[in-house]
Design a protein that fits this description.
Order of helices and strands: EEHHHHHH
Shape: globular
Structural class: mainly alpha
Strand order of the largest sheet: 1-2
CATH topology: Serine Threonine Protein Phosphatase 5, Tetratricopeptide repeat
CATH architecture: Alpha Horseshoe
CATH superfamily: Tetratricopeptide repeat domain
Number of domains: 1
Largest sheet: 2 strands, antiparallel
Strand content: under 5%
CATH class: Mainly Alpha
Helix content: over 70%
Number of strands: 2
C-alpha cells in the first residue's frame, strides 16, 4: 500500500515485470500530484487519466483503477465515460462504497436523481 495525497493505493502484482512498471507509475503519479498546485487542475486530471489507462492495460479488471478513472472522467464532465468505468468497477466489487458514491454523483450530474439517491444510500 502507498498512502499519499489523500489517497491510498493498493497494488497487486501478477508478474515481476509489473512491479517495475507500478513503481515507475507511482513515481510519475506522485510527480503529477506534487505539480498540481502550479498547474491547471484540468490538466492534472488528463495526466492522471493517462496513467490510469496504462495501469488498466496491465490489469483490465482493477476495480480501484476503474473507479479512479471513472471519477476522473466525472471531473472532466465526461459523464457517460464515467458511468461506463464505474459500472465496470461495480461488476467487480459490487459493494464498494466509494464507487457507489462516485456513481451517485455522476448520476446527479446527469439529472438522474432516483439512481443517484439509490447509489448514495447504498454507499452508506
Amino acid at each position: 500500500m502507498l498512502s499519499g495525497a489523500g489517497m491510498i493505493l493498493q497494488l497487486s502484482f501478477s508478474e515481476d515485470t509489473d512491479i517495475l512498471f507500478y513503481t515507475e507509475l507511482i513515481l510519475e503519479v506522485l510527480h503529477v500530484v506534487t505539480a498540481m498546485p502550479t498547474e491547471s487542475p484540468g490538466m492534472c486530471y488528463v495526466d492522471g487519466k493517462w496513467y490510469l489507462n496504462r495501469s488498466l492495460e496491465i490489469e483490465p479488471d482493477d476495480a480501484f483503477a476503474l473507479r479512479n478513472r471513472g471519477e476522473t472522467h466525472r471531473m472532466l464532465n465526461k459523464y457517460n465515460e464515467s458511468l461506463s468505468d464505474l459500472n465496470r468497477s461495480l461488476e467487480i466489487e459490487p459493494d464498494d462504497a466509494f464507487t457507489l458514491r462516485n456513481r451517485g454523483e455522476t448520476y446527479r450530474m446527469l439529472n438522474k436523481y432516483n439512481e443517484s439517491l439509490s447509489d448514495l444510500n447504498r454507499s452508506l
